[in-house]
Amino acid sequence: MDRRKFIKSAGIATGAAAAATTLSAPAIAQAKKDMVIVATWPRDFPGLGTGAQRLAARIGELTEGRINVQYFSAGERVGAFDSFDEVASGNAQAYHAADYYWKGKHPAWAYFTSVPFGLTHNEQNAWINHMGGQALWDEVASGFGLKCLMAGSTGVQMGGWFNKEINSADDLKGLKMRIPGLGGDVMAKLGASPVSLPGGQIYENLVSGAIDATEWVGPWNDYFMKFYEAAKYYYYPGMHEAGSTLSLGMNEKWWSDLGKTDQEIIKAACGEEHTFSMSEYNANNGTFLTKLLKENGVELREFNDDIYDSFGVAAEEVFGETVAHSDLAKRTHESFVAARADVGGWMKLSEGAYFQQRNRVLGL
To answer: Is 241:307 a contact under the CB 8 Å cutoff?
Structure first.
């Protein structure tokens, strides 16, 4: 080979390699994505806070740092209820929250957390994953520039903490109660005054007497909130949240700009957390209910049938107003009702009947 031709060819090859090396650094930098997550929960709060923090860490871990995740709990970057606007505007990339907090923006948001006489954890999963729920959620969220995924669950919640006995629906009249979502609207129909407060502000309002009652989640979470110091009557079951779903809500443009692999990784991390959190609640609620009853003098009470019937009548009024809001609200409600009838009918014959017989035989 001619020496001059060889040197010329080698020079071209070396230049091409150098150019590739020069271009690779910006290309790699562009591949990295920042993800600021703002949550509605206090830092390190069992279940809600720790689950959101776990999800944030998992996304960074699974992407090997390609997605640089920064997590902020309620109040560290924005207030708990400001997280929606922070993400919709693009100032942050994601929130972790219960989407019924946003029902004032559109009532359909409530269905993707929980609504009165709603879906249990298993029923909600069936609706969202297989019966059109996710498509409706996408439609609601896209109207605000968001994309949402299931990212946690608390299961059936307790009815709440009250500073007096509730023996009839009349006992709810005039009661100031922290209860968000459509459940709060049901209480309003029965004469109560619903108050929407982020978790970090409930205790101080209950102790001061600014509110007379509150719902939160269940024994595990409620134990650490120390509600028993201000209200000793603990009622069950909660009509307002049968299978509360937590959400990772992301800025839609940021989501759409991700590569397919990163989208699938985030979906997988959310699915993992969704399953893990429900098992975590089931593992802890019984233990902490025992602590509340035996160590803190809490009195466990069950809402009687007359009160529950009143809840049902009020809920139908609330649903009537909800479907009148818009076509999207109507379609969301109708899809939810169809899933409740179909999946709920099966659950009654399967898990419901089994629980009833198992508990009868074992005396549980």
So the answer is: no
